[in-house]
Write a structure and sequence with these properties.
Helix 3 packs across helix 4. The protein folds into two domains: about 170 residues, VC0802-like; about 210 residues, HUPs (Rossmann fold). It has about 400 residues and is an alpha/beta fold. The chain contains 14 helices and 15 strands.
């Protein structure tokens, strides 16, 4: 068998984009090429509604690992180019199936063909039968059986206008839309479980997501800063090009503690965070804010409190987790490998000066009255002049 491999990249949602489809395909093509940067001898082509990556066999596993982190890809398959000959296709299938059969003692399999070249004389069903019967003739005595509905091994065949490809089982991708197709947004990233998941969900909707972290090293130490920096780098693996803005927040929190009603503190913190994030977003032409808020999960996330913080910014606020149960959020965090970092015991700044009984239904007029008691505009400006900007593509 040849040492070269062909990785077939499938997409689903992009295929529904009508007249804009080419834009999304080209964006995905660029992202795929970028993700495979540094791997030599690779060629990426766009062919009849698919992307094909030509690569040396030893590099295929690394390519699949990287491509599994690229939004917009529905699934991947690794295979080889063959002649459109039933005997050659079957021989390749036998070569792949036999080691698994010997290891397991038995195996259920099927053949599935996609025939995009309608000039090929046999239909997809006929190809399935011709190739499958040849494989069964050779391997049925060793324990191979056909099971179309519950196959443990699927031999896939693609009959294209220029070439025929044979693949083994599919690797699922992230799906969604390619990063860069929907604009840029700014995510309020804490060290908790929720905000990294919400950022990831916007990444998979085609956004490039930058992050902002409100740091109170004076009272909490450096642990939260280091934790969020690691979370931001994990998220950036799915997109590239992200930035993390670190905003000193201790002076604002002290002023709220000293001047304002204790029950309102957390909502006042959030209003100040939104204002600062909104200014940074406008300066950088980001098109909205992203938060990890989920309705009713904590005291600050009631309908009244969410309205009280949203009203201070003149831009869209995206809350992709708003109706998702906590256990499902946790499952998603584990899948994207942020959960173990998020549960490390480093509190975020909203836990500083936490009141015994935080307000659950804040009134905007009461919050504005509290804000009139301290120079919040000046403090916001001071915080904005001290922002640290971290380029997440750089090592460190």
């Amino acid at each position: 068998m040849t040492d070269s491999r062909t990785i077939l990249i499938r997409y689903d949602e992009i295929g529904l984009k009508g007249k804009n489809r080419k834009f999304f395909e080209n964006r995905l093509l660029g992202n795929v090429r970028k993700s495979l940067g540094g791997i030599g001898g690779i060629r990426v082509d766009k062919i009849h509604g698919r992307l094909l990556v030509r690569v040396a066999g030893l590099q295929a596993e690394e390519c699949v690992r990287r491509l599994s982190c690229v939004p917009g890809i529905a699934s991947l398959s690794v295979g080889v180019l063959v002649e459109p000959d039933f005997d050659e296709m079957a021989a390749l299938g036998i070569e792949w199936i036999l080691p698994r059969l010997q290891s397991n003692g038995s195996l259920k399999f099927c053949v599935r063909t996609k025939r995009s070249d309608k000039r090929f004389p046999s239909t997809s069903t006929e190809i399935d039968f011709e190739v499958g019967s040849r494989i069964m003739k050779s391997l049925a005595p060793k324990g191979l059986s056909v099971d179309i509905a519950h196959a443990e091994f699927v031999l896939e065949i693609e009959i294209g206008p220029q070439e025929t490809m044979v693949f083994d089982n599919r690797t699922p991708g992230l799906g969604g839309l390619p990063v860069g197709s929907s604009g840029e947004v700014l995510s309020l990233l804490s060290g908790g479980i929720d905000s990294p998941v919400s950022s990831f969900m916007l990444i998979c909707r085609g956004c490039r997501v930058h992050s902002i972290f409100f740091d109170n090293r004076t009272f909490l130490g450096r642990g939260g800063y280091d934790k969020v920096t690691r979370l931001a780098r994990v998220l950036n693996r799915f997109q590239g090009g992200g930035r993390l803005y670190v905003v000193p927040f201790q002076d604002i929190q002290v002023a709220i503690r000293d001047c304002c009603s204790a029950p309102n503190r957390v909502v006042l913190y959030r209003r100040m965070m939104y204002r600062i994030a909104g200014v940074l977003a406008e300066r950088n032409r980001y098109q909205g804010l992203v938060t990890g808020e989920s309705l009713g999960q904590v005291a600050s996330q009631t309908l009244e409190n969410l309205a009280a913080v949203s009203c201070v910014v003149p831009m869209s606020v995206f809350r992709p987790l708003i109706g998702i149960p906590k256990q499902e959020i946790i499952a998603r965090a584990k899948k994207i490998e942020t959960y173990d970092i998020s549960v490390e015991p480093h509190p975020d700044c909203c836990s500083v000066f936490m009141p015994d009984h935080p307000a659950t239904r804040s009134k905007i007029e009461d919050l504005e009255a509290d804000e009139a008691l301290f120079p919040w505009e000046k403090l916001v400006e001071q915080a904005l002049t001290s922002v640290e900007v971290i380029d997440l593509d750089r090592s460190g």
